[in-house]
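Researcher: Here's the sequence for the chain we discussed earlier.
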Amino acid sequence: MKQLSGRLYDRAMAHDWLLVEILGDEPVVVAQGGQLKNLVPLNAFLRRSPHRPAIAYAVALTTRTGTGLSQLVPATDRVIRTEAVRMSDGRVHGVQVWSGGADEEPPERPVPGPAIWDLTSGVSTATRASLANKGMDPDIQPTHGRSFADDLPRRGLHGGETKMLAMAIRSKPGDAFCGCWEGCDPRGHPAPYGFVARAVLQPVADGSEHLVFRTMNWRCRGDCHSVAPDDLAQRILDGLAQPGTHRALVSLETWTLLKWLDEPCPHYDWRATGAPIVHPEDEPVIAAMTADFAKRPASGVLRLKGNGGGWVPMHVTVNRFELDEKTVAGLMSLRLPTAAELADSGLTTR
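Model: Thanks. This is the structure I predict for it:
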């Protein structure tokens, strides 16, 4: 019976590549073909396979060398093939592994896309594969110096996104998240993709350490339909929508822009990195808004970095928004100030 179970397992595995995330204490399976698997330890996933030790060793070897392999399992007619999923900085985020008969051809291999979200700086780094898996055009979209808000759909909250955004705000090293989203390609067609992220500490050029998400994504097979939208959060957001106002979620600790809920505000350079987005002389306004925010929604007129240079005055309102019972984000609403608001602020565009 044990041998029969092993043969049945191997035949089932032969149909799909496994995607294994390797950044934690042990390798975990996050996808089987295009089907989402929620961080299942590799040894537990392979518990019925008689070739578990050989497969685990192949994954470990590929992780260590960063190079895929094809090798026979000793004393069997089985072959194991692996491919490394490497970020552009050379670090391996995951390993794809397939096992089948030596005379079999593996199925078409999904192409995972590694990426990095720097939670400290608010800047993300993509790869062409990660952009393509989300339905974006890698010939148009940049891979470096991206905003987080470039990487999430510009629409209401999805259940999986809510959990991931909460994790981005309160994560600590070692935390991991796995989920699926209904993306959309440039033509408007559905492009569901899976996503796994793990928080790790990473040294940067100035000698400090940044908390980053090391991530992978891949095209799904419609699993996202099982993840319901966050209906309550969406109703709240719908009630706050106003014409001419552009809303986004931000981290209250770092003021990092996380996600646009409407079309992005076209009046300022929200993608700017490496320089202040708010005019340095507007610090007193920010301080007053911060004090107000402890008791009520805060608002004020701030000069933000303009597209093409200079500064543009914007009316900014920030509300508290609960992503879950433990995590509060900022719901930021931006619009052009009225003439009276601009006059009362005493600000200029210089």
